[in-house]
Design brief:
The complex is a heterodimer of chains A (about 1050) and B (about 280). Chain A is mainly α. Classes of the chains: A mainly alpha (about 1050), B mainly alpha (about 280).
Amino acid sequence: MSAPQDRSREVPSTTKRFLGVDASSDDRVLLALPAGDLKSGQIEAALEKRLDEIARHPLSGSAEAKRLAQQLESAADRLQAEIALVAKGPLHPAAARRAAKKLQSAGIGASNAGGTPSAPKPVQKPGVLAPDAAKRPGVGLSADDLTDFDRLALALLVVSGGWNAKSAKRLATVAGEYGVSVEDLDRVVQGLTTFLSEGEGLRGAMGEVGSQARSAWMQTPAQTSRTDAAEGAVERVLSRLNDVIRDEVTSGSQASQIRLAVIFGGMALSWIGVLAWLFFTPEKAPDSAGTSATNNATTASASNRSSSPSVDTSGLDVTTGANGESIAPVAALAAPAKYPRAPGFVPSKAPKSVIEAASSGAQWIGDLEDASRQIRVAKGKLNEAPATRIASALSLAADAWPSATGYRADVVRAAAQCARETRGTDSLRRLMQLVPGSIADANRAGLAPWQRIWRTSFGAGVLGAIALDAAQPPEVAAAAREEMRVRAIAIPRGDVTDAFGASATGELGKGARELAEGMALGTITDLEDASRWAQAVEVAAQSPVLRAKAAKEAIDAALRSPGALDKPGPLVDFLAYAIHMLDYTGRGSDAPFVRDALASWIVDEGIPPTRVWVFTSLLDADLAIAWYGPDLVLATNADKAARGALADRVLAAFPKVGNTAIGQAILVEGSQLDGWRKNVALLDGLTKADVADRLRNAAVALGSARVARAFELGDGKLAKSADEQMVALMAREAKEWNASPTGERAGLPASGVRDGDFADAWRGAGRGVEQRIDLARTLAARPSAGDLGPIDAQVVAFEALRGNQPDVREAIATALVDRYANGPEALRAVLDVLADGANSQSGAQLVSSLVGTTVAGADWLAEARALLIEKIRLLEDDRDHAVDAASGEIATMASALAASYAKQGALTVGGQRADRALASLADALRDEAATKFLAAPFPAPIDEIERLRAARRGIARSVTQRMAAETPAILDYTAMLVAARQPALQSKLTTILDNARRARATAGGASEQVESDLRAMLAVLGEVLAPEATKRDEEA
Amino acid sequence: MKTHTYSKKTSVIRLSCAALCALGVVGFVDAISSHSFAGFHAPSTLVAAGHATLSTQSSASVERWNERLEALDPMRPYDYLALAEEVADAASSERERQLARELFGLAGALDTERLGRSALLALAQFASDRRERERALAAAEIVGGRGGLLRSFRIEPEQLEALSRAFSFYRRGEGRKALNVLRQADADAVLEEIGDAIPGGAAGFRAELEAMRGGGAARPDPQSVRRLLLLELALRQGDGRAVSLDMLLRGDEPLIEIDPSDPAALWQVDPTKPWWRNGKWSGGT
């Protein structure tokens, strides 16, 4: 027993030398496999690993190594066979290939591959066979003998209707995934064909086989087999690379060095190439804004792509942190439509002919009143004469009613009076038919679209006013309603306060559709008709709701018309104008109407997404709609879900005015509101000792009002900048206020020189030119001299302007200009000498040199005096400069505030004059207040506020009084706007206004009145500001 | 020619003497009356009798309106206005003029909307000075006007140049020249118009120029010099002048404001006493 042991110790077995295991080891030990259940792939991976170890061995090329490899393969095959016998998982393709190879080497299969299917021989088995099948040659195949690949191939043949191009393509794909070559696949197919031709019993099971195989394929069988195949692959590749490089490095031969240089050089070059690709590959730049906006839509957001769940950023993509900041990735945006200029238009003025026609409004009323008397005389019968009068008067009125605003109500009243006098069905029916705007009337040839719209809307208004007039006899109202139905005019329902306006606006909405279609079809090429339409809407729609209805109809018409919206043209201008008519602040009575309309347009599938894209782009571009951002622009390819999501986001973003117990407050973030109130309190503490102080305080108050306005608009950026400006004003030192705006400093007389010395010397010098020139030179040579004494200055100025010795005059003028141009006394002396007259040429030159501005012309003396005094004024710091600076600040603040109230393009800011800027502000506030609805005017009707304003202007004599003439109106309009938000505040506001009026009446100066009014304005604004609810409040 | 000159001088002397005599008489009467009102001494019989007569006349003149005054009813405010106009037209005494003012005031207070403006315009006619008159006119505008009072002070270029030269001569101490220049181109009118903005007013300025002519005035103080300079600049710059210059010229006077909560201040009457009973206004019928 010992000898063999010794021999074996001396001559280790092959397995021991190559693998470190005894030759008597079982298959698992040979392959270094653990005990327990094995997988086919696991066996193959172990085999590969062992084969690699053999390959790395120095004797890898020996016959022993080859034998050992075959031994290992046999061991692996045995293990695979064990697995196959207990049907544990699929056979690894490598094992299958190895089995097939063995069969081929045994002379089976290949030579008989082309045999007929009728020959039932085992050699006709497919190339890939289960290991156990190989053990039973000559036995017919059953379904259990098929591998997974066989089953899958068989299923594909079945479902594809046999061997054809389709099944071939599919099988080739699957074979690639299983690692089966084309030749093997060919044999598999032949074998399967043979298999299908075998016994009837098997055919009955084919459906089951096919379905099992297909379902297995659907459950990604390829991935499972790939996982098996990949086991150890990465390690093998890396190990192989490692070995190769190691061998090359350790060999040290020149060839190895060259190869290494080539390998690493290639790697370096590839890295350089990758880096160059990263840095220099051009990005896809978006299309630049061109005249056509269509291309921009192609960069539509991913968020809005089909069925993109990220569209609804409110729920998922965009979340906010504790402080409200966005902490999540921002969804991609759709590129808004762009145009060479902002779409929209300013309505042109009415033609002169219309204005002239409108001026005869009194005549229409007179004719109608005469006609009503004639009807009354005829006991209610409408005869020819009154009918003609009525028809003529109403027709003329229908052609010019938007320009005859002063007569419109009276015309309607007179027409209603005619109706009231009329009796009898025939007469009434005839009377109603006389009202312009009937179908026949509207279709008359030669009428421009706007004329047709004016006539039909006027007719609708008159009929509506009669039909809804409770004072009319029932038969009259019935006749009017009948005529309205004939003309397809919608009869206003509910509580109608302005029957004419409601009916006329309805017709104007229809007119908008006509205009939009005309623009789309090209029959209307300019904006004249749209301007007239806008004029009529402005007159007819007196309430915000009516105006919103008209605008909604216009937008709807433009969106549904067939014309292009993504290119500049009248249609998009019309659309933009209508968009601008709506109030998107959420404060007006029409807010729900506007909000719902926006959402309905976005989701309306009758409007293509490209048109909604334009619409939402225009909303985004409208600076008056601060809350509408580019994230609310619809993509051109948005589907229904994306549109719905956008509508939800628009509804969420639409301003919600906070509802308090007493109305709608402006909600402001708590700390911001505290800051605002603190600044207002600081303003109360500022000194108001003189006019400059009071005007500065007024400017600060306007700054605070700007901040409040920014709160109202929800514009944080504006609020911040306005707040900074206001704080800077409060912090400015008195010295800065008093400083000369030009920064020039006054010169001082030379120290140690007595005033009059020069005058005495001058007299003493007599008329000698040389002596006088010398004296002039001494004047110029005085050290540190910037001014003269009054006596010397008078002599110098006289000689410089009126001296009769040219050389002397020139010398002394030169000294004056060079040394004393900033001397107040010297300048004043020149001014006073000008009172005696002066040589026009030399005098103008001298003054020009002194003031730095050319003085010339026939009125040079007047000009010279003004410039000299202005220069004297600006040489010294003075409280007057503070007054002017504060006035300038008032102008700046008031203009900015007015701009924040004014509609786009509707404001001409009054430059840098404080009184004009305040007037602009009052105008802007008035226009804003006119859009608000109050059950009873507060604090007074706009007409009364304007009358008082005009009256105050009439009695104002100074600039500060003109400012004080505007501030009461500013205060009243501010109170009106606040009361429109919160009607319940009226009692508080009344108190503030009364106090302000008393303060105004007892004020000691106009500047004090201005200041007190603007302080009162802040008190009014303070009432409507309320702190925003915090998260904690909401949770509570 | 000479004779004519002589007779003119004579006439001037005679007129001057007559004026001086008249002034002396007026001064005497004024002195006596002021003494009597001040209560220094018992009024002389003559003055007392005179005042008694005036008082009696005033009472008598008011009493003639008693019947119509007692017929007034605050429900008919227009009657107050109509009677006020009659009284104003027929007023022969201060008491009657006061009565007219009271009637206008009551008319305006009782129906400000319809009669307020008329009443204030009428009250402006009774104003004792320019400021009060302007205030009444402004109040009329506030109560019912529509900016019709808008007016601007316009200065002709010749007036401005003459005034500017006068200022220059003033600064140079040449009063005579300044006075002469002021007479040119009606510059005096401009001086009157801007008198409030000149230290001492227009009259004070002229007096100073007169003093300069006689050599009795010192050189103008620097503040006055600067003020006149800026005034000239303000006038030259017209309506586009800086606010500080405008304030120098126009001041910072408050804009007239009506306080409806204080009708007594506006109308100078007590609207709660609209009934005329026993020779005075009362609150009950």
